[in-house]
Amino acid sequence: MDASAYYAGGHKVYEEWHRYTNGTDVFSVLYYQGVDKLLDRWQKPGDQTRYGKFEYTGRPWQRHSKFLYDGDYIRLKDLSVGYDFNKNVTDAIGIGGLRVYVRGTNLLTWVKDDNLDYDPEVDTDGYTGMTTPPAKSFIFGVNLKF
């Protein structure tokens, strides 16, 4: 078995696309269509939510600290598991060696802040956008020795 993972922490990540995806004005609900989280918006006094009341307006774009998230994350980058068949088995089928294995890449990413929806691995500027995480992949293999 072989595994590799990495951690990044102690920093903040700013969600750059909130103007289009999470705004409560015409940019997200008319032009972009927004995201499901906007359905949990403010509707009446006493509501506790991250998103305000919908307004039919085109306010100038403003940065807002509610889209600043803890950037801490751990990513399991690679995991390989294999099995070598013993000599009795390989001799019985007439080969010198047999190994089967599976390798996974980008299997798991744990993010500290549950509100951060996009990939937490950002450039040094600290901005994230509509970036998807690296693709998960699985490789199954067989090594034969003759």
Q: How would you sum up this structure, described in words?
A:
The protein is mainly beta and 146 residues long. The chain is 12% helix and 36% strand. The strands form 2 sheets. The chain has a 4-stranded antiparallel sheet, with helices on one face. It has a 3-stranded mixed sheet with strand order 3-2-6, with no helix packed on it. The protein is elongated. The mean pLDDT is 86.
List the helices and strands and how they pair.
Elements: E1 2-8, E2 12-15, H1 18-21, H2 26-32, E3 68-70, E4 73-84, H3 87-93, E5 97-111, E6 127-128, E7 137-145
Parallel strand pairs: 2-6
Antiparallel strand pairs: 1-4, 2-3, 4-5, 5-7
Short description:
The protein has 146 residues and is mainly beta. It contains three helices and seven strands. Helices cover 12% and strands 36% of the residues.
